[in-house]
Design a protein that fits this description.
The structure holds three protein chains of three kinds. Chain B is an alpha+beta fold. Helix content of chain B is 31%, strand content 32%. In chain B, a hairpin with a 2-residue loop joins strand 6 (136-145) and strand 7 (148-157). The longest helix of chain B is centred in the middle third of the chain and has 23 residues, at 92-114. Chain C has eleven helices and ten strands. Classes of the chains: A alpha/beta, B alpha+beta, C alpha/beta.
Chain lengths: 129, 162, 277
């Protein structure tokens, strides 16, 4: 079964770039423009394995989204990776403390995403189902 | 302690710009270098900018990060970023999205150096650039990227109520 | 593109002769980019510099050209498995061999810009912090042929792009501090590593005998006879029961039979069983 990923960013271009990389890695992708929209997607879709979340978004920012997801037992197994230009040490600590599994600073190369997903153990395998 | 806009030096702008181009367009390879000759006049100009607003100990502070280049660069940036076929024409919408995103990531990294709590505006793209009346020039840097020239500049904006 | 076909072919041939690496046409931008710093240091453009070298190739310049084009972007915790093996298998084994691990000596041969020895440092620090009892006195000797990469490694400062490569965020926040646009490794990790210029064809660096040697993705550049010599030199400074870690898919099989393969996942880990109790 193909793994599903949710790309959350208020920039349509950035969603397109991240989703493009994830698709090349074997994911099916969904998109949301802010944290609230993303929660709605999680409610209505099942089996989302990974969320790539921007920090600064209107309505609900990425940090709040991470906290909301972590507060729900039903979403316990979802891998959360922040993808953001926020690069202050304290910001990263906050994100990890809130429950993000990984943190990718923009700008990033496609390889960097692949590497992070690899050691998180969520790279889609190429084995036959 | 919050840095002021004046302490974002040219080397840092250079590093940020180089990293953005290397990572997002050149698979990690550094192909953007500082240009020491004066920038040429852009015959088909294109500009993108983001503004950042912070409340510092010294009062409100607004800084603009502006990227100026020409359409040819804009097209190469667009095809590269959006993984479109190289050398082909791009829609205005894609151009605005892609080039705006470059300004967004450059600006986001500048903001990161200035103040974590600053807010970044949405990127704007226009052929001729923003209205800079009242803006105070802080820094600029010319870049050679592949066979293109870009100019990245920082401006202090007159304080606006936000 | 200012690079002529002749210059590109010249570089491609040189690189192919001195390393296994094939520069296919289309990589002109790579040549231009990688050689710009060298050309600039001579006050020339890349094409001018290459035209000069084509006319009369200096041995030093040949080395510089090949090195500039064959350096790969190094990542942290490269291949991840060996670092897991270090804590899950190697350290417990060593403790079992000796009863108490009072000292630990690691040699990172071909350390490049430092990501490997510093990754080792981070893994060991985190591991010993979680273990009861006193921490062993740990020394990491890191060597490379290139003075330039050693100088960079010594600084312990990395760009945002470099820290994005293979470094878990938890390690980033625990062991680094942000410094402008760069990330600086904490002193606690930096002081675990001693950098030294060294040619693998020479006698091993002082500081041994070692418990663990990392020799990753270097043997591939040597022919069988040289591989044998290098491995024999290393075995002489590796304690009995000590471990050799090669790059993924590298092997000592068919080259040197004094090593025993250690079954740890897909890693290429070997044990020096000569003289082992």
């Amino acid at each position: 079964m193909t793994m599903k990923a949710l790309v959350i960013d208020d920039s349509r271009t950035m969603r397109r770039i991240v989703a493009g990389v994830l698709k090349n890695l074997g994911y099916d992708t969904l998109e949301a423009g802010d944290g609230q929209e993303a929660l709605n997607v999680l409610e209505s879709e099942s089996d989302i394995a990974l969320c790539c979340v921007d920090w600064n978004m209107p309505v609900m920012d990425g940090l709040t989204f991470v906290k909301e997801v972590r507060a729900q037992a039903q979403w316990r197994d979802i891998t959360l990776m922040m993808v953001t230009t926020e690069s202050e040490h304290g910001q990263i600590v906050r994100a990890l403390a809130a429950g993000a599994h990984e943190y990718l600073i923009k700008p990033f190369t496609p390889e960097a995403i692949a590497q992070k997903l690899d050691f998180l153990g969520v790279l889609p395998a190429e084995e036959p189902v | 302690m919050t840095s002021t806009a004046a302490t974002v030096d040219r080397d840092q702008i250079l590093t940020i710009t180089q990293d953005v181009f290397a990572a997002m367009l050149d698979s990690g390879e550094q192909l953007a270098f500082e240009r020491f000759e004066p920038a040429p006049e852009f015959t088909e100009p294109l500009a993108a900018w983001v503004d950042m607003h912070a409340i510092t100990d010294f009062g409100p502070l607004s800084v603009r990060a502006l990227v100026n280049t020409d359409m040819a660069a804009g097209r190469d940036i667009t095809t590269g970023l959006l993984m479109l076929p190289e050398g082909e024409d791009v829609t205005r919408e894609d151009l605005v999205d892609a080039f705006g995103e470059i300004a967004n990531v450059v600006g986001g990294n500048v903001k990161s150096l200035l103040d974590a709590t600053a807010k970044l505006s949405l990127p704007q793209v226009d052929d001729n650039g923003p209205d800079s009346s009242g803006a105070q020039f802080l820094q600029d840097l010319a870049i050679n990227w592949r066979n293109h020239v870009l100019v990245v500049s920082l401006w202090l904006l007159p304080n606006t109520q936000n | 593109m200012t690079l002529t076909q002749e210059s590109f072919s010249f570089v491609a041939t040189l690189v192919r002769q001195k390393s296994a690496i094939n520069l296919a046409p289309g990589k002109e931008y790579l040549v231009e980019s990688r050689l710009t710093p060298i050309a600039r240091s001579h006050g020339k453009t890349v094409e001018q510099y290459l035209a000069e070298q084509r006319a009369r190739l200096s041995h030093t310049e040949a080395e510089r050209i090949v090195e500039a084009l064959t350096t790969n972007e190094t990542s942290w915790f490269r291949d991840s498995q060996p670092f897991v093996a270090l804590t899950d298998h190697i350290l417990p084994e060593l403790k079992q061999q000796r009863g108490l691990l009072a000292t630990l000596k690691v040699w990172s041969a071909a350390c490049s810009t430092g990501q490997e020895p510093y990754s080792i440092g981070m893994v060991l620090t985190d591991y010993f912090a979680s273990q009861p009892g006193p921490r062993p006195v740990t020394e990491i000797i890191a060597t490379d042929l290139s003075q330039e990469v050693l100088e960079r490694a010594q600084k312990g400062r990395y760009s945002q792009l470099e820290v994005n490569r293979g470094l878990p965020a938890t390690h980033l926040v625990r062991h680094f501090e942000r410094s402008g646009t760069e990330w600086a490794l904490n002193q606690a990790i930096r002081q675990m590593v001693r950098f030294q210029r060294h040619n693998l064809l020479d006698s091993p660096p002082a500081g041994g005998p070692y418990d663990v040697v990392f020799l990753r993705n270097v043997l591939i550049y040597f022919d069988v006879q040289v591989k044998r010599e290098v491995l024999a030199k290393i075995r002489k400074v590796l304690k009995p029961g000590g471990f050799l870690i090669l790059g993924a898919a590298e092997t000592t099989v068919g080259v040197d039979d004094a090593w025993t393969r250690v079954q740890v996942g897909r890693s290429s880990i070997y044990q020096n069983t000569v003289g082992k109790k």
